[in-house]
TrEMBL record:
<protein>
    <submittedName>
        <fullName>RkpN putative acylneuraminate cytidylyltransferase</fullName>
        <ecNumber>2.7.7.43</ecNumber>
    </submittedName>
</protein>
<dbReference type="InterPro" id="IPR050793">
    <property type="entry name" value="CMP-NeuNAc_synthase"/>
</dbReference>
<keyword id="KW-0808">Transferase</keyword>
<dbReference type="InterPro" id="IPR020039">
    <property type="entry name" value="PseF"/>
</dbReference>
<dbReference type="InterPro" id="IPR003329">
    <property type="entry name" value="Cytidylyl_trans"/>
</dbReference>
<dbReference type="GO" id="GO:0008781">
    <property type="term" value="F:N-acylneuraminate cytidylyltransferase activity"/>
</dbReference>
<dbReference type="Pfam" id="PF02348">
    <property type="entry name" value="CTP_transf_3"/>
</dbReference>
<dbReference type="InterPro" id="IPR029044">
    <property type="entry name" value="Nucleotide-diphossugar_trans"/>
</dbReference>
<keyword id="KW-0548">Nucleotidyltransferase</keyword>
Length: 212
């Protein structure tokens, strides 16, 4: 929609009004320049070893906390990891996550599965269908437990929890429920095409004039 995708995430963070600092962790100078152009800080560059397809979110967060702890201002008490590939994130959801840390260690954006996972199928190497949970072959969809998945937008967490837990997907996490119609986790070309269609349909929030 005419701007780098990371702009939308930074714009939402600025509009949320719950952040003292908005920092982008990247190993790429072009991404760093784009982030600065819309008000984010780049106080450190991420090492290449934490910038490949195998680096985990927790590793990147730990590196950021180490870098911030070494600075005069010190590490924050709370930190939100907001993915650059989440253009449909909304400011009010980020603010709600910050509030939930009053009672939880983490707050995670989630959305419902569109179809019961208990009725999932696999395609075998021979090209036929196989039920993953055959005991639910005849179970009505409406009789199965509703399930949720990580929406791939953001994770709020207390710094102490980030340092002690391998993942924010745990029993100490509060869910921030998002409707399916404004969630897409952009990993593939098919995801990208869906996101473009969603954007053309008006699901991107207007960019505040100060961010243009």
């Amino acid at each position: 929609m005419g701007r780098p995708m990371i702009h939308w995430a930074i714009r939402a963070a600025r509009a949320a009004g719950c952040f003292e600092r908005i920092i982008v962790s990247t190993d790429d100078e072009e991404i760093a320049a784009q982030a600065r152009s819309v008000g984010a800080e780049i106080p450190f560059m991420r090492p290449g070893a934490l910038s490949d397809d195998h680096a985990t979110t927790a590793q990147v967060v730990h590196h950021a906390l180490e870098q911030l702890a070494a600075a005069p201002s010190g590490a924050p008490d709370r930190l939100c990891t907001l993915y650059a590939t989440a253009p449909f994130v909304r400011a009010e959801d980020l603010a709600r996550g910050a509030e939930l840390l009053e009672t939880h260690d983490f707050a995670v954006s989630v959305t419902r599965y569109a179809f019961p996972v208990q009725r999932a199928l696999r395609i075998t190497p021979e090209g036929s269908l196989d039920m993953i949970a055959p005991e639910h072959l005849l179970t009505r969809s409406q009789d199965l437990e509703e399930t949720w998945h990580d929406a791939g937008q953001f994770y709020w967490g207390r710094t102490s929890a980030w340092r002690s837990s391998p993942s924010p997907l745990c029993a100490r996490s509060a869910p921030i429920e998002l409707p399916r119609w404004r969630v897409v986790d952009i990993d593939t070309e098919e995801d990208w095409a869906l996101a473009e269609a969603m954007a053309r349909g008006g699901l991107l929030e207007p960019v505040p004039s100060a961010s243009r």
